[in-house]
Design goal:
Helix content: 55-70%
Number of strands: 14
Structural class: alpha/beta
Number of helices: 30
Shape: flat
Largest sheet: 5 strands, parallel
CATH architecture of the largest domain: 3-Layer(aba) Sandwich
Distance between the termini: 71 Å
Oligomer: single chain
Strand order of the largest sheet: 9-10-11-8-12
Radius of gyration: 35 Å
Strand content: 5-15%
CATH class of the largest domain: Alpha Beta
Number of domains: 5
Length: 643
C-alpha cells in the first residue's frame, strides 16, 4: 500500500511513496486538499465550492472528470464513494498532512494554510481557505498562551522568547503580545529583554504604520523601567527578606503607573492570612516609588487602637505635617488647621459649633470635608498614593473618613494600597463592599507559597547551606506561610534551628491570631495540640466538656479562620492544625501539669479501646502519651505487646 505525504501550510505539495505528485489541473488539486481537511464531503457541496457558477449538469460532469483524474494519479483506494452522495478520504491508507501535526510542531510553521494556492472564479473556495487560515491562527495563539504560562513556571527564557516571536509573526501589531512578553520577562528580572521588545515594536510601528504604542503599552514600559531601577538600586538587606510575589507586585505597580498616567484606576486591597506577606508586599510596592514625584503616605492600624477615633490616620498626617514644615508641599491655612484634630481625635471648637449634632461618626462630617479639601490641594500638584496596613483594626471614624476620601478622590486623584488579614476582614467588610461596588478598589488575594515556590525560596535563601528539613517537610511545617517560612530559613542559615523552637517574630504573629479567639475556641485548640498527628471528635470529647454539636460548631469556626483542616482519613473525619508552628506554639504555652494530665487522659481513652479492631493502630500512640504523661513504667508494659 502506497504512503502519502501532504503539505498544506505555505505552498502545497503531495508526495506518493516519496515521489512528487503532479496534478492534471488546479481544481482537481484543490478538491484533494479540500478532502484532506474535511475527510468526508457531499458531492453537491463540492460542486457548489468549485463550480458554483455552472449549471448542475456541467458541475456534475466536471466533478466526475476531476474525481477520475485524482484516482488515476493517486490510486483507486484513496478517495472512496460512500452511498450516492458522499466522497470520503480512505482512513485506512497511510496519509499524513501537516494540518494534523501536533501543536508543538504546528505552531512553529509560520506559513499560512494554502498560502500560495489560488483558483480562478472560485470565491467559495477562497472563503473556505480564509476560514482555515483563521482556524490555524486561533489554534496557534491558543497554544502559545497556554505554553507561555508553563514557560513562566519553568523560567524557560528561550521558549518564552520563541513563543513571543511566533505570536508577533501571526499578529505583528498586537500590543497584547508585546505587553505579555514584557510582563513575563520582568517577572524573571530580564528587564533588558523586556525593554528591547518594546523598543523593537515601537520602531517597527513608527516605520511601517507611522504610529506610536497605545497608552496601556506605554504604562507597561514605564512600570518596567521603574522595576528595573528598583532592582538595581535596592540594597541587599532589603532583598533578603522579600521573595516571590512577582505577579502581585507587578499588578500593584501597573495600577499605580496607570493612575500616574492619568487613567482612572482601581485601588488595591491585599487580602491574606496572618504572616502570608501582606506587609512585605505593601512595603515593597512602596519602595517602587522612590526617586519619583509620587507623594506616598503610609499608616498602620493597630488592634489596641481600634476603638480610638482617627488613630489610624495619625502617621499619614504626621508625614504631611513634616513635609509641609520642610517646604516640600504647600497647604492652605484652612487645611493645615485640621492636622491637630487628626492627632488628638478631637474636633476643633469651631467645627463642633458648626458640625452636625448626630451621634456616632456623623459629627465628624465637617472634618471629613476639611480632609477632602486638603487631599484635593495635594493632588493638584502631586500624585498621591496612600498605603494602609492592617486596616482590619481601623476604627469606625477612620473607616468613614477613608470611605469619604476614596469616593471623592479614588481612582483619579488618589490611589490606595491597603492590606487586610483574611480572618478579620469582617471588621471592614462594609467599607470594602461599598468601594468595590463603586469600582474604587479591587481585592488582591495573597495565597501561601506553593511547594514549588517553597523549594525555590529555600534554594535561594540557603545557598551553600545544608538544610535539616527537606522541601516537602519545610512546606508541611509552614504551609507556605511567608513569615513562618522566612523565620525558619533564617534560623537554619544562622545555625540556630532546633526542633520545636519558634522564632520571636513568628511567636508574635501566632499570639496575635490567638488573641482574637474566643475562650471556647482556645480550649479546642489546646486540646487538639495534644495529639500526635490529628484527632477525631471522640478524641477531643475525651478532653472537653462540649457537646458533640457544640464541638462541631467551634471546629467549623476554627476552620473558617484558617487555623485547622478537616480531612477524610480513610473512613474517619479528622482535624489537624494547618501550621506545625501554630501547633507547637499552642502546645508549649500550656502548663506542664495540664499537658501531663491530658496526655494521661488520652492514653487511658485509647487503652479503653484495646479490645477493638483499632487497638493495634492506637497502641504506638498510647505508649507515647503515657511517656509524655510521666508514666514510663506503663509505657514499657505496653511496649511488650508490640514486641
Amino acid at each position: 500500500m502506497s504512503e502519502y505525504q501532504v503539505h498544506l501550510l505555505g505552498t502545497p505539495w503531495v508526495k506518493k511513496d516519496g515521489a512528487a505528485v503532479h496534478f492534471p489541473y488546479r481544481k482537481a488539486e484543490g478538491i484533494f486538499y479540500y478532502l484532506c481537511v474535511r475527510k468526508m464531503v457531499n458531492r453537491d457541496e463540492v460542486i457548489s465550492v468549485f463550480w458554483g457558477g455552472f449549471n448542475e449538469t456541467a458541475g456534475r460532469k466536471n466533478m466526475r472528470q476531476a474525481l477520475f483524474q485524482l484516482r488515476r494519479i493517486l490510486g483507486d483506494d484513496v478517495i472512496l464513494v460512500q452511498g450516492q452522495q458522499s466522497l470520503v478520504l480512505n482512513s485506512r491508507i497511510p496519509l499524513r498532512t501537516d494540518w494534523e501535526d501536533d501543536d508543538a510542531i504546528f505552531v512553529r510553521n509560520s506559513d499560512r494554510f494554502l498560502q500560495f494556492f489560488y483558483l480562478k472564479n472560485c470565491p467559495e473556495f477562497e472563503t473556505w481557505v480564509e476560514s482555515c487560515q483563521e482556524e490555524q491562527k486561533n489554534r496557534c495563539l491558543e497554544y502559545i498562551r497556554s505554553q507561555l504560562s508553563l514557560a513562566e513556571k519553568r523560567e524557560d527564557q528561550k521558549q518564552m522568547h520563541e513563543l513571543i516571536d511566533i505570536w508577533l509573526k501571526w499578529e505583528p501589531w498586537n500590543e497584547e503580545a508585546v505587553t505579555t512578553g514584557m510582563t513575563l520577562y520582568s517577572r524573571m528580572n530580564q528587564f533588558v529583554m523586556a525593554l528591547q521588545l518594546y523598543h523593537e515594536f515601537e520602531k517597527r510601528l513608527a516605520e511601517e504604520l507611522d504610529e506610536e504604542p497605545g497608552e496601556e503599552l506605554k504604562r507597561t514600559f514605564a512600570a518596567t523601567l521603574r522595576m528595573k531601577e528598583v532592582a538595581i538600586n535596592q540594597n541587599a538587606e532589603h532583598s533578603r527578606y522579600f521573595y516571590g510575589r512577582k505577579k502581585e507586585l507587578e499588578e500593584i505597580t501597573m495600577g499605580i503607573q496607570s493612575f500616574c498616567a492619568g487613567a482612572e484606576s482601581e485601588s488595591v486591597l491585599i487580602v491574606g492570612d496572618s504572616g502570608v506577606g501582606k506587609s512585605a508586599l505593601l512595603e515593597r510596592s512602596r519602595s517602587m516609588n522612590r526617586g519619583t514625584d509620587i507623594l506616598d503616605l503610609t499608616s498602620r492600624c493597630y488592634r489596641s487602637e481600634q476603638n480610638f477615633p482617627l488613630k489610624a490616620w495619625r502617621e499619614t498626617f504626621k508625614r504631611i505635617e513634616n513635609l509641609k514644615n520642610s517646604g516640600q508641599i504647600r497647604l492652605s491655612a484652612e487645611s493645615s488647621a485640621w492636622i491637630p484634630s487628626i492627632f488628638t481625635g478631637n474636633l476643633r471648637s469651631d467645627a463642633l459649633e458648626n458640625g452636625r449634632e448626630e451621634n456616632g461618626t456623623g459629627e465628624y462630617s465637617v472634618l471629613e470635608d476639611g480632609v477632602i479639601r486638603m487631599f484635593h490641594e495635594l493632588a493638584a500638584t502631586r500624585k498621591v498614593v496612600l498605603y494602609f496596613d492592617d486596616i482590619q483594626w481601623m476604627d469606625p471614624v477612620s473607616q468613614q473618613l477613608l470611605l469619604r476620601v476614596m469616593l471623592e478622590l479614588g481612582g483619579t486623584e488618589l490611589f490606595l494600597v491597603a492590606a487586610c488579614t483574611r480572618e478579620d476582614q469582617k471588621n471592614v467588610r462594609q467599607l470594602g463592599n461599598i468601594l468595590q461596588r463603586e469600582n474604587r478598589i479591587r481585592p488582591l488575594e495573597l495565597e501561601c507559597f506553593s511547594k514549588e515556590e517553597t523549594e525555590e525560596i529555600m534554594q535561594e535563601v540557603l545557598a551553600g547551606c545544608d538544610s535539616p528539613l527537606s522541601p516537602e517537610e519545610m512546606h508541611r511545617r509552614t504551609e507556605g506561610n511567608a513569615l513562618i517560612l522566612m523565620d525558619l530559613l533564617q534560623m537554619i542559615r544562622e545555625g540556630n534551628w532546633r526542633e520545636g523552637l519558634i522564632p520571636p517574630q513568628t511567636e508574635s504573629v501566632l499570639q496575635s491570631v490567638l488573641d482574637s479567639l474566643s475562650e471556647e475556641e482556645m480550649k479546642v485548640l489546646n486540646a487538639l495540640s495534644m495529639y500526635m498527628e490529628h484527632a477525631e471528635i471522640f478524641e477531643l470529647e475525651a478532653l472537653l466538656d462540649f457537646s458533640e454539636m457544640e464541638l462541631f460548631d467551634i471546629l467549623e469556626n476554627l476552620e473558617k479562620k484558617q487555623l485547622i483542616h478537616e480531612k477524610i482519613w480513610g473512613v474517619y473525619v479528622v482535624y489537624e492544625f494547618r501550621h506545625q508552628a501554630m501547633k507547637d506554639y499552642v502546645y508549649q504555652h500550656q502548663s506542664v501539669g495540664k499537658r501531663r494530665a491530658w496526655h494521661r487522659t488520652i492514653a487511658e481513652c485509647y487503652e479503653s479501646l484495646r479490645d477493638g479492631e483499632r487497638w493495634l493502630e492506637l497502641l504506638p500512640f498510647t505508649i507515647r502519651h503515657y511517656e509524655l504523661a510521666g508514666d514510663p513504667e506503663k509505657a514499657d508494659v505496653l511496649k511488650h505487646q508490640i514486641s
